[in-house]
Request: fold
Amino acid sequence: MAMRMSSLFLRTLREDPADAEVPSHRLLVRAGYIRRVSPGIYTWLPLGLKVLRRVETIVREEMDAIGAQELLFPALLPREPYEASGRWDEYGENVFRLKDRKGGDYLLGPTHEEMFTLAVKDLYSSYKDLPLSIYQIQTKYRDEARPRAGVLRGREFVMKDSYSFDLDDAGLDKSYQLHRDAYVRIFDRLGFHYVIVQAMAGAMGGSKSEEFLATAENGEDTYVRCPNCGYAANVEAVRVPVPDAVDATAVPAAHAEDTPDTPTIDSLVAHLESAFPRSDGRAWTAADTLKNVLVMLVHPDGTREPLAIGLPGDREVDEKRLGAQVEPAAVEAFVEADFAAHPALAKGYIGPGVLGSEKASGIRYLLDPRVSEGTAWVTGADTPGRHVLDLVAGRDFTADGTIEAAEVRPGDACPSCGHGLEAARGIEMGHIFQLGTKYAEALDLKVLDEHGKLRTVTMGSYGVGVSRAVACVAEGNHDELGLVWPRALAPADVHVVATGKDEAVATYAEELTRELEARGAQVLLDDRRQASPGVKFKDAELIGVPTIVVVGRGLADGTLELKDRRTGERRELAVATAVDDILREIGQA
Ligand code: ATP
Ligand code: MG
Reply:
């Protein structure tokens, strides 16, 4: 049935919503696709629901094509399975928890590994039942700290999640590859520009992991890629190549010096340059200094643990990289009260003396991999106004380990070939990873193998942001006038606009719509009698159906106008051949 603008549940807005930060959010609200209910919680209006359903259909078709079977779990889940996997606590504040009338604990599912694992355990017991891939397209709930950009980052959102179950690693590799191929087809059909990057496995544990990022300037994820060898990774997953040990025998013994009033890296470098010029004439730079950054980790059980990170002074700690490393702990700032509780820490002059092997502070100390064996540094002497020079890693101090928390910068060496990396931003649209046996072990999912022995099943987990895809496609497909949908996702195939008060125009527009629909096209018909042509054209541009057919003045001469919303091109169609021409235009001839 055609959608008619005269009765469609829709009000387009001329003004931008006040809370919209990005174009997709602005336009989806203005064009009447979504309405905000509460932060991160949105209603899908008829037009929006059409697009959402089209995304779902594409995802469903490609999942079915690899033999995955659809099922549907509840969103309201009991605590116990999540308790057993450890995630009731690990998920922290991101989970919506609630109680039933008897005081029992429940949650609204943020992701469903536990439920899938238990379902297979419930029904299957033999290797003969494997491999198995099952999936659902379902509403998820996450109490995101920063819901953002409409449905791009919601607190209620639609995800397709699938899980594979195999007897061994070779089987898992195969299931993973099947999903990866399906994802390539899904994202090609959705019309994304995307990259596939190496990723962190995150809260879900496991090993091999890749993300499908839609390239977008205002995306929340930063990734790097190597123009030389094709390496690509989310910055969270970048491993800094560990330098070979340097021979430090020529470096003089470490010596503490007065460096008055140098609490910042810049002030320290300026002071070094004037008070300790290097004999070989090289200028001091921030990269010669070792800075020690303190943060407070908050573990799932609520315990707070200070953490010191030593890194070259020319680099900042990257919050997301750090977060990914310490997960499930959350990272908070190390505040004045924390310094007060650790009097050994001389703010602005903290060094490995107090953090390192001496353990005078009792604080865990982790180093950037660049602070490697034999490298010499200028760093805090743990006394206000003093720094140590020629302090050699491994010789003069050690730490409790290394951490990948320093920012990754364009030009940094590619971990795979050494060439300079490029950086760009994207939106995470899909995530696939090999979970391995983490959930099967936690929930005791075993099957009998061909020798009658019990074996733990190995799993993969694969997600697509279905509702996010709507925003993401809108983000990549709009202009100053409105949305410009790719054909596969538009709320209709053709937008027929009837203009003027002429009865013949209205009658013909109805007839054209009927014929197009009879031939399988979905039509949005602007049959409003009161709206001016100007208003109708503006709405058509805002709504963004890629093919617009205007029935108006030309009808008397036997012509219609076909407008391509994407290119702005217009051409005349003869009424006699219009239906076929339009069907050819939309690829449904
Ligand atoms: P992000 O890093 O963006 O928070 P995530 O890594 O936590 O996402 P996954 O658990 O991998 O997300 O979920 C699978 C997919 O679900 C993601 O790739 C993304 O497309 C989508 N998704 C995740 N969180 C949200 C959200 N809050 N709103 C909409 N879609 C989401
Ligand atoms: Mg992810």
Notes: The pocket of magnesium ion (ligand 2) is lined by residues 202, 428, 431 (CB under 6 Å). The first helix runs from residue 23 to 30.
